[in-house]
Amino acid sequence: MGLKIKWNDDRVRGAITAILLIGRERLHRGETEDLVKASLHEYRADPVGYKANKAVWADARELGPLTKPAHVAYYRNLLQATDALLKKIEQNKRQSNSLLELDNYLVASLQDVR
Description:
- By secondary structure, this protein is mostly helical.
- 67% of the residues lie in helices and 0% in strands.
- The protein has five helices and no strands.
C-alpha cells in the first residue's frame, strides 16, 4: 500500500517552508530559474544540510538577505501564493501518494509565481 501524505501532514508544511527558505537564499544569489523546483530538489537532495541552514536562517516570513526590489517582490508574491495554496490544500483535504507527487503538485501550483 502506498504512502499517504494527508493535507495536515507536517511534510506538506515542511516542503513549503523549504521552498520559501531555500528559495529566498537562491534569490539572494540571483538564481531565479525554476526557483520552486530547484528549491525542492535541493531540499530533498540534502535534508541534513537544509536543517543545519534552517537553524541560522531568518524566519520564512522575513525578507532576510533580499535587497533587490525585484527579488523582494518575487518573494512577497511567493509568500502570498504559498499561503493561498496551503488554504486550498486544507479546504480540499488534498492527499498525495508520495513525496514525488507532493513535490510535483507544489511545483505545478507555484511555478507561475513571479
